[in-house]
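ingest -> validate -> predict -> emit
validate: passed (alphabet ok, no gaps, 309 aa)
predict: started
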Amino acid sequence: MKYSLSLVLLFLVNFTFAQPSEPVIPAIEVSTHDFRLHYNMQAPALTIALPEELEEISGLSMTPDESKLVAIQDEDGEIYIINKVTGEIERDYNFYKEGDYEGVEMVGNSVFVVKSNGKIYEVHDFGGEHQQTIKFTTSLNKEYDVEGLAYDKKNERLLLSCKEVGEPSEELSLEKSIYAFDLKTRTLVEKPVYTLRLKDFLYYLENNQHVHRYKKMKEHFSENPEDFAFAASAIAVNPRTGDIYILSSKGKMMGILSPTGKLLHVEKLEKSIHCQPEGICFTKDGTMYVSNEGKNGAPGRIYRFDYEK
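emit:
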């Protein structure tokens, strides 16, 4: 009996120590690797002053051949084709009636425009003989305040960044969502594909105190802990890296996510340059264009930032 009891005890001890420990799942979706920003956001390579029609430029994209910029402004249902060196409007096309239009993306021969209430307009055969506008109503509404639209080529979808929560609650007040519009089915994916969280930004800043204007950003996020003061005003996928760049006019910041949704970097933008960043797009080689609405009598502007190796 003693012999059997000893075997049982030995078995229990070995079983206990042989069990693998529970995997540690990080609560914060933040990359622990050093991130190098390949752009000097304080020194644009080119500054383009825009004509009066685009003083309130609210969205920016690129033609597929990368020869021109595509823009909208947040009042008129017009799509503008812009010279990417001079800022001159070369053509403009009416696609719908007046409205609060916030993001634009050109995909093939279609131009997609998103309204702040979540409605998406596809301008099919853009500029062609058979141009027509198709409207898609999504489950997002004005409470979400959709402000950004990006083409995610790898996943054949559009990304819609929301400035607000949509359905306020104590938990959701500290999060902002990014949704996807599937281009194969022309439907919205109901659950967010990415989530921006206040705790991720705070964790990032706590562990990256060397970043540009760290103290200013720390103060910005700590002023009111009940409010997540990062409100996406534009979004784009960098085709060179696959990373997702999100502008916030509020606080003048840029957040960068990995394709899997990890927060890689937060950059403080200089107010003297980025008075109201509302649009962003890239060329295939990583050249970045950022548009700003005009303010205090100044014209709207587009800045070019070259990819630095």
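The two ends are 74 Å apart (CA to CA).
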